[in-house]
């Protein structure tokens, strides 16, 4: 199958080095400490953060840093085929772990000893790149909750099909069976907090694909930063000066 | 703008009006020193003397500060900090808080105060009813539940904060603190409550209720007795309830009006403080808005317009204070 047309366009009309349209909304749930809704093209994700709060199971409490707990789930209606998804399947356990680890790399956990931070990420619509979308949404939700972090964590996938490195794969490209590389990045320090790849790739091509994914992360980080600044501005202005 | 009569607008219209009113509030773009997390903080020309990192910042390289939360940059001489506009309650010594007992533990009550961890109220730092001296025996440790049980609401003051892990200790060593009954609790975001001279406030006549503005965002609305001098009676007679445990209907309605005023302010993200609460209550009375309608978009829009007008009148240019 042809994934890149001779004109250099992909199946959904993008150029190879183009990310999908991003849309984020912050503080969508008022009962949570922080929440964010993120769309990357047709992939739609909702992230919710509760805490930092008292550790619910005292034996798990850490005396020198915060306990980060993450739960990933997919809505029954998130894919083409509607089906119930059991909670503890291998895929979601692995993804919870991946999201937790890359967020833990950014959260300044040593500032919040004996506390717990819960991150719940739910995929509402899956169209490839859910891993990346979940990490981005979790970052935004944590930032909304006011949890101190080193930097935003931005994540993006990249692949290699028809001899072309492609940025931000959608579902069709993802299921083509080619290599799929997900990267999460602390853009300021250019530190990689997550790097995952299925299937194989020659070393020199790998570097090109990795570079592309990192560029994608930076573009996404810039977009998220704008959204956060705008949100902060709204909050600050509504509060306004206090008269006593 | 005030239209108590006439056909009621549809819900969509009202929502649109509310959005418009909020946009007016937000459009007052005083240039605020806002940063996003991860941004380098611009220290301007006078950074030569060196800077100190405060809350919400960290060092990134030499003499370069980076924000770790999204919010407002604040500066006191060399100390630079970033204040997040949202987040859990961070205790300060002397704060009045309202908390809920989550656990009765060894010689202490664990209290939920909406903070990063539960606060502790030590048995040694409470006043016994009647002001009697406590005898330190095993028996009164066993009888702690007679004083405060799980799920009781208590007003208290922050006594101490552990520097190491941020654990908070509370005390109720004053007649005004203690168990809260015969009223209602409204929870708002803690950043909406500013530290005031008085957190126990009696609202004047037509309202005639007492409120405790807990710095942690828990607002208690009860009878006026809990504020009046002398505080509670010795046998915990502070509650509005009569001997039968009933609060009379008029008082309940007044309390509900005040509670909804607090909720309305919080829904709009406006600071919750006594003059604002009174103003919202008066506005609802003026427009003859029923208590149950005070959280509808029509009334919220009116509150937002009122606030926007007020800010415009004040000249809008003032920087935020706290």
TrEMBL record, chain A:
<dbReference type="GO" id="GO:0034475">
    <property type="term" value="P:U4 snRNA 3'-end processing"/>
</dbReference>
<dbReference type="GO" id="GO:0000177">
    <property type="term" value="C:cytoplasmic exosome (RNase complex)"/>
</dbReference>
<keyword id="KW-0271">Exosome</keyword>
<dbReference type="GO" id="GO:0071051">
    <property type="term" value="P:poly(A)-dependent snoRNA 3'-end processing"/>
</dbReference>
<dbReference type="InterPro" id="IPR036345">
    <property type="entry name" value="ExoRNase_PH_dom2_sf"/>
</dbReference>
<dbReference type="GO" id="GO:0071028">
    <property type="term" value="P:nuclear mRNA surveillance"/>
</dbReference>
<dbReference type="InterPro" id="IPR050080">
    <property type="entry name" value="RNase_PH"/>
</dbReference>
<dbReference type="InterPro" id="IPR001247">
    <property type="entry name" value="ExoRNase_PH_dom1"/>
</dbReference>
<dbReference type="InterPro" id="IPR027408">
    <property type="entry name" value="PNPase/RNase_PH_dom_sf"/>
</dbReference>
<dbReference type="InterPro" id="IPR020568">
    <property type="entry name" value="Ribosomal_Su5_D2-typ_SF"/>
</dbReference>
<comment type="similarity">
    <text>Belongs to the RNase PH family.</text>
</comment>
<dbReference type="InterPro" id="IPR015847">
    <property type="entry name" value="ExoRNase_PH_dom2"/>
</dbReference>
<dbReference type="Pfam" id="PF01138">
    <property type="entry name" value="RNase_PH"/>
</dbReference>
<feature type="domain" description="Exoribonuclease phosphorolytic">
    <location>
        <begin position="18"/>
        <end position="148"/>
    </location>
</feature>
<feature type="domain" description="Exoribonuclease phosphorolytic">
    <location>
        <begin position="151"/>
        <end position="215"/>
    </location>
</feature>
<protein>
    <submittedName>
        <fullName>3'-5'-exoribonuclease family protein</fullName>
    </submittedName>
</protein>
<dbReference type="Pfam" id="PF03725">
    <property type="entry name" value="RNase_PH_C"/>
</dbReference>
<dbReference type="GO" id="GO:0016075">
    <property type="term" value="P:rRNA catabolic process"/>
</dbReference>
<dbReference type="GO" id="GO:0000176">
    <property type="term" value="C:nuclear exosome (RNase complex)"/>
</dbReference>
<dbReference type="GO" id="GO:0005730">
    <property type="term" value="C:nucleolus"/>
</dbReference>
<dbReference type="GO" id="GO:0003723">
    <property type="term" value="F:RNA binding"/>
</dbReference>
<keyword id="KW-0963">Cytoplasm</keyword>
Automatic annotation (TrEMBL), chain B:
<dbReference type="InterPro" id="IPR004088">
    <property type="entry name" value="KH_dom_type_1"/>
</dbReference>
<dbReference type="InterPro" id="IPR012340">
    <property type="entry name" value="NA-bd_OB-fold"/>
</dbReference>
<dbReference type="GO" id="GO:0000177">
    <property type="term" value="C:cytoplasmic exosome (RNase complex)"/>
</dbReference>
<dbReference type="Pfam" id="PF15985">
    <property type="entry name" value="KH_6"/>
</dbReference>
<keyword id="KW-0694">RNA-binding</keyword>
<dbReference type="InterPro" id="IPR048565">
    <property type="entry name" value="S1_RRP4"/>
</dbReference>
<dbReference type="Pfam" id="PF21266">
    <property type="entry name" value="S1_RRP4"/>
</dbReference>
<dbReference type="GO" id="GO:0071035">
    <property type="term" value="P:nuclear polyadenylation-dependent rRNA catabolic process"/>
</dbReference>
<dbReference type="GO" id="GO:0003723">
    <property type="term" value="F:RNA binding"/>
</dbReference>
<dbReference type="GO" id="GO:0000956">
    <property type="term" value="P:nuclear-transcribed mRNA catabolic process"/>
</dbReference>
<dbReference type="GO" id="GO:0000176">
    <property type="term" value="C:nuclear exosome (RNase complex)"/>
</dbReference>
<keyword id="KW-0539">Nucleus</keyword>
<dbReference type="InterPro" id="IPR003029">
    <property type="entry name" value="S1_domain"/>
</dbReference>
<dbReference type="GO" id="GO:0000467">
    <property type="term" value="P:exonucleolytic trimming to generate mature 3'-end of 5.8S rRNA from tricistronic rRNA transcript (SSU-rRNA, 5.8S rRNA, LSU-rRNA)"/>
</dbReference>
<comment type="similarity">
    <text>Belongs to the RRP4 family.</text>
</comment>
<dbReference type="GO" id="GO:0071034">
    <property type="term" value="P:CUT catabolic process"/>
</dbReference>
<dbReference type="InterPro" id="IPR036612">
    <property type="entry name" value="KH_dom_type_1_sf"/>
</dbReference>
<dbReference type="GO" id="GO:0034475">
    <property type="term" value="P:U4 snRNA 3'-end processing"/>
</dbReference>
<keyword id="KW-0271">Exosome</keyword>
<feature type="domain" description="S1 motif">
    <location>
        <begin position="92"/>
        <end position="173"/>
    </location>
</feature>
<protein>
    <submittedName>
        <fullName>Exosome complex component RRP4</fullName>
    </submittedName>
</protein>
<dbReference type="GO" id="GO:0071051">
    <property type="term" value="P:poly(A)-dependent snoRNA 3'-end processing"/>
</dbReference>
